[in-house]
Every structure is written in C-alpha cells, then in structure tokens.
Design goal:
Elements lengths: L11 E6 L2 H12 L3 E6 L12 H4 L3 E5 L5 H12 L3 E5 L2 H6 L4 H5 L6 E4 L16 H8 L1 H4 L16 H23 L1
Parallel strand pairs: 1-2, 1-4, 2-3, 4-5
Helix pairs in contact: 1-8
Length: 185
C-alpha cells in the first residue's frame, strides 16, 4: 500500500523503554506509516535478545542514549517534544526520575500524546514492579485459570504472551483515540 494511504503516515513517534507491549505498539504504528524512533539504552535494548525482536523492531530507527546523563537525556526530551506520540515502557519511578512524565513532556509541547505503560498504575505498593507478561498473567489470575492442568491444585504457566499483546492493542486504542480527539479540537 502506498505511504500516503496508510493510517499513521506523517506521525512522528518516539518509543522509550524496554516493554514488549510498547515495542509491539511502535511496530504497528511503523507498519501503518509512522516514523518511529526507538530510544535504547547504551548497548541496545534488552528486547534485542528476544527472538521476536526482528519483528518488533521492524520499520523503526533506533538511537542509543544514556538517559541518566544530562546531555543525552536532553536529546531524548527534545525528540519527545517534537513528536506526535511518545510511547513509554518504564517503571513510574524511572519515568519521574528522568523527567519523562506527562507534565514534564507536555509543559512545552502540549500537542504531544504521551502513553506510559505500567503494570500496576502510578501509585501503590506494586507501581514499580517490572511489567513482564508472566507477572501480569500471574497477578491477573490467568495462570490459576490453567490450574486444571494440575488437578486444580496449583497454577500453571500460560506461555502465550496475551498480556503483552493485549496491552499493546490497548495502547494503540488510546493513541488513535487521542489523535482523533486532537484533530477534532
């Protein structure tokens, strides 16, 4: 399909963090014509060790920046301020420490749509638990649902990454909803 006919053509997207869900959402936006820049830590994203990374990284450009260092962090913030959409897959404490929270990113760039994925929200005792598919499935009860495999006596590991893909689709719904809202104002 020609670029001008794809739904995300003309969108600039910045992807930050090492969340599989964010990578899948970024991949989908790239497939739909967006220009996606993935900001990776020095040495590359941990997702690069995953067999699926060849798929998740397709259609994107990547840049390695040490977000803990002031100069590279400012470069990342500048990319984010000039983007249409920023996808963040990091723990809330890291997001706050690095100045990647919604208020910081939109202060000088109110047009930016910021989507930050957490497993357990911005507050509470689990807020900084890393978002891994198995953790989300376990906490959500999916593994207990498979306990019949063990006579109902213990949970069973559910290998399909349904939480990862489900979260990616929810991210995309939010992004396209926010884009539609931005266009209507």
């Amino acid at each position: 399909m020609a670029d001008e006919r794809r739904i995300a053509t003309g969108l600039n997207v910045v992807e930050i963090g090492s969340s599989g869900s964010v990578a899948i959402a970024g991949m989908t936006l790239a497939d739909a014509g967006a220009d996606v820049i993935s900001i990776e830590k020095p040495g590359g994203s941990p997702l690069r060790s995953e067999p699926a990374f060849a798929m998740w990284g397709r259609g994107k450009r990547s840049i390695e920046l040490d977000l803990a260092a002031p100069g590279p962090r400012e470069s990342a913030l500048e990319l984010a301020r000039n983007a249409d959409v920023v996808l963040i897959g990091m723990k809330p404490a890291s997001v706050e420490r690095l100045g990647l929270d919604f208020d910081s990113l939109t202060r000088d760039a109110p047009h930016v749509i910021v989507v930050s994925l957490t497993g357990f929200g911005l507050h509470g005792p689990y807020r900084d638990v890393p978002v891994y598919d198995a953790v989300m499935q376990g906490r959500g009860g999916r593994m207990f649902d498979f306990s019949a495999m063990h006579g109902g006596k213990r949970p069973a590991f559910a290998a399909a990454p349904v939480a990862t893909y489900g979260a990616a689709m929810a991210l995309l719904s939010g992004v396209f909803g926010a884009l539609r809202e931005r266009l209507s104002n």
